[in-house]
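User: Sequence recovery, please. Input:
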């Protein structure tokens, strides 16, 4: 989000912000600096040409025509006698004739040049207007399909992005985009055609950084097509759409840089409640892109753009894209959005433990919730969880992100230490908004 709320920190190393894990990533934001021209011409070294009838151009870095030094041409010795004088005159006449012939040839060449027809691009007819449809699977085609469904979310504290889930005005966005209006503040949603509608919060979930809002008195809106983030592969091309820096309807492209990246997003305090199992992309994502869709080359939404990494940043300034952006996978967001739109509340997948970073790697169990999923599976305080299913766990954030990526009721095998295996059925709890 752009403005007061801004984009959330993504939690990469070196930020100095608090975090639960030793490898906890934090990030803040810098306002992009505008630089002037890339330098100015520097004066070149001057070159002396003693005896030159024409000095070299000022500041020239190259030598001009070369001229002989004074006295370097040795004059022929003068010989007495009329014949020699006549010969000298004849030579002079021939020399003058040669010069005259040269001048005549040059003038003739110039005349021939001047007689050639002149071509001027401004006189040419413009090409025929392009009428062919966008190529299948092109960025152009994706933009044509997705742009009508992307909206700008406007609040008193700034702007963000979102996309339409239903023709009667349901919009999915980030919780941190609308959080400032949670107590009844005004929200407006602007469509790509310029129309603007009042909106209200239907439900929000700070733990997943998702929110559903609804436009009032609207119908017949185009809606997005939701894809499957589980099918994503590293290197796959993707497109981001949103309103970076209040520039509505901006389209950028890139690839999937990484998957299952544990990232803190949404909460400015960097609490574990906001750890996401994020898609990393190098598509340009900036403040104001928050809540907008990340789509595949079929124009299907595969993620919700939520966080960016800005190195050497502070919380007082907004950051810009450095090719590291993060999106919430749609497989996780779809379930939460459905709950929020139908009941106004969301349920959170839980393992039933409190964890920290183990010195040797992994997530060490510091407390087991009574009656929870972990206790039922035989997990005890002091156990170090090193794998969640087939996914290695090297930090506590990695475990939280892995749990959040699953739905309540799913069965997963945990690895404790090097080789102890336990099967656990994940539990759930209703998200309480403080």
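Assistant: Recovered sequence (434 residues):
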């Amino acid at each position: 989000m752009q403005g007061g709320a801004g984009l959330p920190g993504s939690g990469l190393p070196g930020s100095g912000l608090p975090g639960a894990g030793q490898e906890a990533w934090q990030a803040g934001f810098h306002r992009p600096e505008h630089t002037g021209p890339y330098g100015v011409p520097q004066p070149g070294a001057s070159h002396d040409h003693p005896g030159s009838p024409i000095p070299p151009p000022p500041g020239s870095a190259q030598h001009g025509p070369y001229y002989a030094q004074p006295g370097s041409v040795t004059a022929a010795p003068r010989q007495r006698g009329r014949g020699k004088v006549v010969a000298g005159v004849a030579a002079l006449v021939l020399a003058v004739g040669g010069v005259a012939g040269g001048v005549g040839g040059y003038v003739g060449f110039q005349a021939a040049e001047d007689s050639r027809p002149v071509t001027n691009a401004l006189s040419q007819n413009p090409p025929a207007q392009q009428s062919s449809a966008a190529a299948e699977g092109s960025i152009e085609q994706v933009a044509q399909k997705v742009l009508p469904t992307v909206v700008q979310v406007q609040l008193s504290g700034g702007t963000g992005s979102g996309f339409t889930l239903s023709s009667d005005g349901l919009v999915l966005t980030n919780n941190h985009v609308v959080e400032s209006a949670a107590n009844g503040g005004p929200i407006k949603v602007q469509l790509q055609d310029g129309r603007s509608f009042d909106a209200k919060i239907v439900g929000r979930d700070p733990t997943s950084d998702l929110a559903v809002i609804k436009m009032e008195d609207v119908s017949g809106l185009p809606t997005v097509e939701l894809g499957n983030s589980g099918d994503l592969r590293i290197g796959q091309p993707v497109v981001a759409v949103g309103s970076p820096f209040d520039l509505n309807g901006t389209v950028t492209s890139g690839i999937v840089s990484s998957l299952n990246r544990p990232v803190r997003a949404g909460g400015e305090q960097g609490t574990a409640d906001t750890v996401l199992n994020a898609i990393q992309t190098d598509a340009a994502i900036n403040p104001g892109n928050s809540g907008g869709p990340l789509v595949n080359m079929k124009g299907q939404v595969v993620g919700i753009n939520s966080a960016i990494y800005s190195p050497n940043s502070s919380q007082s300034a907004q950051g810009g894209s450095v090719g590291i952006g993060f999106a919430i996978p749609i497989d996780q967001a779809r379930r939460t959005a459905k709950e929020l739109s139908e009941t106004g509340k969301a349920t959170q997948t839980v393992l039933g433990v409190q964890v920290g970073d183990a010195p040797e790697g992994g997530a060490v169990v510091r407390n087991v919730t009574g009656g929870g999923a972990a206790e039922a599976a035989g997990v005890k305080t002091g156990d170090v969880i090193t794998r969640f299913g087939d996914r290695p766990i090297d930090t506590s954030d990695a475990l939280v992100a892995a749990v959040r990526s699953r739905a309540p009721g799913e069965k997963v095998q945990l690895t404790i230490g090097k080789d102890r295996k336990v099967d656990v059925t994940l539990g759930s709890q209703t998200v309480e908004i403080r």
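The CA atoms of residues 51 and 135 lie 67 Å apart.
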